Amino acid sequence: MKILALCGSLRAGSLNRSALRSAAELCDPDWEFTLEPALSRLPYFDADLEQHDLPEVVAGLRQRLGAADALLIATPEYAHGTSGVLKNALEWLVGGGEMAGKPVALMSASPAATGGSRAQAWVAETLTVMDARVLPDGLLIPQATRKITDGRITDPDTLEGLRGLLTRLAESVYVPA
Ligand SMILES: Cc1cc2nc3c(=O)[nH]c(=O)nc-3n(C[C@H](O)[C@H](O)[C@H](O)COP(=O)(O)O)c2cc1C
Fold first, then answer.
1. Which of 11, 110, 145, 147 to mutate to test the pocket of ligand 1 (most atoms within 8 A of CB)?
2. Cα–Cα dist 28/32, whole Å
3. What spacing in Å lies between the alpha carbon of 109 and ligand 1's midpoint?
4. Over the stretch 19-76, which tens digit does the pLDDT of each residue have?
5. Atom 17 in ligand 1: which residue has the minimum CA distance?
């Protein structure tokens, strides 16, 4: 199974990136886990560019999404929404059509008690419009600075929740709803 992971934060010490690092380590050895490398290099979405001169970096992102069996997205929450980085990437992905039918698992880590629930709901709504198959009940990681240390999830319950999310993602690939 090929999983493509998108991280909505560019920060080196990102809690969400750390959670994705732990996800990569929890994957079965025969799964292929790729952290999407291009999000920081995407230009702002521009429908003229898309129509007349699709940037190579966008074509690469679309190609990797098309080749993936499933998507894992970690979103930070900024002002009750997702990040501009992730929103921009999703805008580029609307036109490609690769998202249709794709199983997607969502997670969000925040120092706040809500764990990024509003950003996650926002991303779920957008992905649903794009015809992705969004798993119900993504993983929320509230008070994440206490549960993520040195770039990895260290809280056992959170690790268990993440393991469950990955299992459900794999099931949704092999047994489509
Ligand atoms: C501009 C800004 C707005 C933020 N707004 C929220 C918010 O609405 N809700 C929330 O839970 N955290 C909010 N935070 C805190 C972020 O969740 C926190 O910085 C988190 O660590 C970002 O994710 P990252 O660690 O993956 O970069 C905000 C942070 C910044 C810098």
1. 110
2. 9
3. 9
4. 999 999 999 999 999 999 999 999 999 999 999 999 999 999 999 999 999 999 999 9
5. 110
Rg of the chain (C-alpha set):
15
Q: Domain containing 162 — which CATH number?
A: 3.40.50.360
Q: Per 3-state DSSP, what percentage of the chain is helix, strand, and coil (rounded to 5)?
A: 45, 20, 35
pLDDT tens digits for range 50-60: 999 999 999 99
Instruction: Give ligand 1 pocket residues (Cβ under 6 A).
Output: 9, 11, 14-16, 76-80, 109-112, 114, 116
Alpha carbon nearest to ligand 1 atom 6, residue = 78
Burial class (CB in 10 A: 0-12, 13-18, 19+), 43: exposed
Nearest one of 19, 162, 16 to 78, comparing CA atoms:
16
Residue 80: give the domain boundaries.
Answer: 2-174
Number of domains the chain contains:
1
pTM over 0.85: yes
**Nearest ligand 1 atom, CA 18:** 26
